[in-house]
Amino acid sequence: MYVLALLFVFALAFLVECLSHSRLIKEDSSAAAAGLIRTLLHTVRVGLAYLVMLAVMSFNVGVFLVAVGGHCLGFFLFGSRFFKQSTAASAYVKL
């Protein structure tokens, strides 16, 4: 059960980072629809972040480490620019 709890906290932390850096709204969508979708995603993200916070407040070192690891891996995959090549960076490479 402990390993399952650790996997669950890791997945929650990873999902929080995924939702934090996702671009699910298309440019041609209406302002009302975009606002509604952004509000819904923000609500889900904050709710999941509070669940991770409550798990960390158990003062268990293992839970803390997997929460930090989930946030770390999620940010690395979705938030960092490691996998994204910007046009500005590619312009510098060509010079």
Automatic annotation (TrEMBL):
Primary place of residence?
Answer: membrane
Point out the coiled-coil segments of this chain. Answer: none
* Domain of life, source organism: Eukaryota
Record localization: Membrane
Topology of the protein relative to the lipid bilayer: Multi-pass membrane protein
A Gene Ontology cellular component where this protein is annotated is: plasma membrane
UniProt name for this protein: Copper transport protein
Organism, as annotated: Momordica charantia (Bitter gourd)
